[in-house]
Structure formats: structure tokens, C-alpha cells
Design a protein that fits this description.
Elements: H1 16-40, H2 46-64, H3 66-71, H4 74-99, H5 103-110, H6 113-125, H7 131-147, H8 158-179, H9 181-184, H10 188-208, H11 216-222, H12 225-250, H13 255-262, H14 265-275, H15 282-304
GO cellular component, one term: plasma membrane
Subcellular location: Cell membrane
Domain EamA: 23-148, 158-297
């Protein structure tokens, strides 16, 4: 469950796997985050879990990036705040979505961001996508249809639709990041810190509204050891560790290579959901999952060309 910006690239080292392996670990961690979030979150604790998850790591990010935060201009603060508001929507949709669908479906459906983003960019720039890319997009959409019909042809679940909206929200976030000129020159750590801080503020305000679910401290008091382990995994590994590995890796290789490795996230989500979560796709669902992965891989190659 990710949506963080990457800084500029520098040349790759000779031993690429010294850099690739940690990034692959991040992809695996993100893939397993859907099952972890599903394990500790209910309909009434979504906002509480989000406040706790990001509230735990935010002080560490503030301390690490305090110099860069002081150097941000007013326009950069505003731009990062807007991106943070969009980011809060992404995490709300993803977290509510994973409560109502399987971790496997969540990880595979969210991978459609890799198809939606180039299509949206083509619409904004009025540059028609290639036939190969359109074919890849069609294959991915067909895959999602089959994926959500693993138990027979029925209406997609609420969770499936929320994950689809989350994929669209991720696309909006990427486009906004490229269109808001003020943030393009901002330090990546500072930008991410302001975004996460803005998102936590949104979660906290919503959590304070009566009827929106348990308060963060109430949810925390009800957590057992396993719940705390899941929350710390989401905070320390899926957020803090993942962000710093991205920053470290992209300075030693290329953003394209990092993006390619992180693109294996849905594979890990399916693997973890099936092997650890005991989820079952069925024949149609399995075929749909394969088509989603094939379509996104084909689309990535078509975009690269």
C-alpha cells in the first residue's frame, strides 16, 4: 500500500542486485500489507488504525527531515498539503476496501494504477496511447472482471469497487504531483513528511466526528499483542523502511528500475493472501489474476517503448 514520491536518479552501480534486493523486499512488504491491514482493521476502526499507523512514524520523519522542512517555501507547503489531502483519500479507499474484499483482490486491483496513469496522462496531454498499450489496458480490465468473479458471475463486492477507486485516486495523485510545479523542486523527504502530516490531520479530524468509528486511543487499548505487531509492521516496515529504501535505491539506480521492481507488489499480495491468509481465487479468479499481471507488465513495456 504505497503512494510515495521518488527523488531524482543517479547512475546504477555495477552490482545491481545489491540495490535491487532491498527494493524487492519493499515490494514484498507492500504486497503483504493488505493482509496485515485486513487483520487489524474493521469497519469501525479504519480511521483509528490510519491515525495510529502514520502518527507513529511521523515524528521520525520530522526529525530526519527538519532541515528540509525549514527550507520549504509557502507554495511548496501548499502544494504538499494538497497532495497530502489526495493521499488521505487513497489510504481511506484502500483501507476501507481491504476490509470488504480479500487481500489478494486488493493487491491485484490496485495494480491497475499502472494502466490508469498513462491513460490519464494521454488524455491530459492529448497524446493518443499506442495500440499495444490499449490492448494491455483491455487485458487488465478483463482480468479484474474475472478476478472479482472467482465464485461465479456476481456483482463486484464493495471492497473491489473501493480498491478500483483507490487505483484511480493513485492516478490523480501521480498527475497532481507532476502538474503542481512548486513541489517538483522540493526535497523528497520533506515533501513526503508534509503529505503524511496532512493525511494524519485529515484522519484525526474525521475520527473526531461522532459516528465515524472508534477513537484511536480506544482502538489502541483494545489491541492485543498480535494487533500491535501488525500495526508496527505497517508503520515501521510498510511506511518508514519502505520510504527510506526508495530514497536510498533510486540514487544508486534508475527510477524506471525501481518502479519495475516495485511493480511486483501485486504478485506478492496474491502470494501472501493465498499462502498465509488462506484465500482462494477459484479458476476464474486465478485466470483473472494472471491477466491483470500480464496486462500491467505488457502496459509497462509498451509505455517504456
Amino acid at each position: 500500500m504505497s503512494s510515495l514520491a521518488l527523488p531524482a536518479a543517479t547512475p546504477a552501480p555495477r552490482r545491481a542486485w545489491h540495490t535491487d534486493l532491498p527494493v524487492l523486499v519493499v515490494a514484498a512488504v507492500w504486497g503483504s500489507s493488505y493482509l496485515a491491514a485486513k487483520g487489524i482493521t474493521t469497519q469501525s476502526t479504519v480511521l483509528a488504525v490510519l491515525v495510529l499507523r502514520f502518527g507513529i512514524v511521523l515524528p521520525a520523519l520530522v526529525v530526519a527531515g527538519r532541515r528540509g522542512l525549514r527550507e520549504l517555501t509557502a507554495a511548496q507547503w501548499r502544494g504538499a498539503g494538497i497532495l497530502g489531502a489526495i493521499l488521505s483519500g487513497i489510504f481511506l479507499l484502500e483501507t476501507y476496501g481491504v476490509v470488504h474484499t480479500s487481500a489478494t483482490n486488493a493487491g491485484l486491483i490496485i495494480s491497475l494504477t499502472m494502466i490508469f496513469t498513462p491513460l490519464a496522462e494521454a488524455a491530459v496531454t492529448r497524446t493518443p496511447p499506442s495500440r499495444a498499450f490499449l490492448g494491455a489496458a483491455g487485458l487488465s480490465v478483463l482480468g479484474v472482471v474475472l478476478l472479482t468473479q472467482g465464485g461465479g458471475f456476481t456483482a463486484p463486492s464493495t471492497g473491489d469497487l473501493l480498491m478500483l477507486l483507490a487505483a484511480l485516486a493513485r492516478t490523480v495523485h501521480v498527475l497532481a504531483m507532476s502538474r503542481i510545479k512548486a513541489v517538483q523542486s522540493a526535497d523528497a523527504l520533506s515533501l513526503t513528511t508534509v503529505q503524511l502530516g496532512s493525511a494524519v490531520a485529515v484522519f484525526a479530524v474525521l475520527a473526531a466526528v461522532p459516528g465515524t468509528g472508534a477513537a484511536p486511543w480506544t482502538a489502541a487499548a483494545a489491541f492485543d499483542a498480535q494487533d500491535w505487531a501488525g500495526l508496527l509492521f505497517l508503520s515501521a516496515f510498510c511506511t518508514l523502511f519502505a520510504f527510506f529504501v526508495q530514497m536510498w535505491a533510486v540514487r544508486r539506480t534508475s527510477p524506471s528500475r525501481v518502479s519495475l521492481l516495485l511493480g511486483t507488489e501485486p504478485v506478492w499480495a496474491a502470494a501472501v493472501g493465498i499462502t498465509i491468509g488462506g484465500e482462494r481465487l477459484g479458476a476464474l479468479g486465478l485466470l483473472g489474476g494472471v491477466l491483470v499481471l500480464a496486462g500491467t507488465a505488457w502496459g509497462r513495456r509498451a509505455t517504456g517503448r
